[in-house]
Task: structure prediction
Amino acid sequence: MTETKQRMSAVERREMVLEAAVAEFATHGLAGTSTENVARRAGISQPYLFRLFPTKKALFLALVDRCFRRVQETFTAAAEGLAGDEALAAMADSYTRLLDDRTLLLLQMQIYAACSDPEIRDATRAAYKRLWEMIERITGLPFQTVVDFFAVGMLMNVAAAMDLPSVDERWTSWCPKD
Result:
């Protein structure tokens, strides 16, 4: 009895490449990531990678979208049926759990670091704006409250990047601990 192997669709292959690329870009950033390593990790040839994503920057831009979409989806699910402070608290709690994914966190940091490139900066700004406006729309809270939410979120990113929750000292006592 022979087993027929079903080929992956281009969409499935693209998803597989994005999964492989997250780890590479999170670790090495835009400049330091090798498309050869991404292709190898995804189990495809480099020429096939470039058929799916014509440039390394196009691949990175797809990750920018994917990263922000994941945060948006997480916040939307957390705030379902809630509004105001309750919605914002649920989003904050969900973000704390999202930061447990160190690869996603490092990818976020690499995205911000790559904003010296105008195209990446524009894509990052647009994604950040969509996230901001979604939070305003769902919560209905005042502008300054949303500013404070994002400020604390960025502080949490930095703390998570340095693994401050594992440091048991007074100056880190504000960090959410497990």
The chain has a mean pLDDT of 93. The longest helix spans residues 10-32. DSSP finds eight helices and no strands in the chain.
